[in-house]
Task: structure prediction
Amino acid sequence: ETGVTQTPRHLVMGMTNKKSLKCEQHLGHNAMYWYKQSAKKPLELMFVYNFKEQTENNSVPSRFSPECPNSSHLFLHLHTLQPEDSALYLCASSQGVKPRELFFGEGSRLTVL
Amino acid sequence: GENVEQHPSTLSVQEGDSAVIKCTYSDSASNYFPWYKQELGKRPQLIIDIRSNVGEKKDQRIAVTLNKTAKHFSLHITETQPEDSAVYFCAATPEYGNKLVFGAGTILRVKS
Result:
């Protein structure tokens, strides 16, 4: 596998469920990101990790919990979500801490019932 | 923080015509401005970017212009083709960070 891969591609969960989204990058990058993409809204940055350390939390509710065990893997743990959290969650990676091209995954389409 | 506004939200052009998408930003410290293209059901991909030390950059049929004084930048696509149909996002960020702030996107439809 090359590039940035995300699993699962689709997820349906109830408001009381706990689930996780997984992202893996095979590009040797050292920065990873979670973005939320909702209809007719800008891509919203959620979290940034540089060299496994979280450097940005864009006022994201605590029901979203990120985890970055190493520079190649990024998780987003979900619990007690709301229907308005339904969206496409995109993972991305880049090389270096200065602005560079973001390489996105295909996204995980989340539906909260 | 940075705020990026993008216009228009939808744009329809005839094949062969030009398309222009405009963005404004609020943070005068921003100096990196990429453009991403997202085809239906696919991931966003970088198509061109510009840094504040240049006013224009071209790559074949695509060009980006930047006016730092007015805090706006634009994407120009010439000789549009049906495969240019997609959602285009502009973004901005300061050089000292990697917190890209995106515009709301422009749906471009190229009619053949």
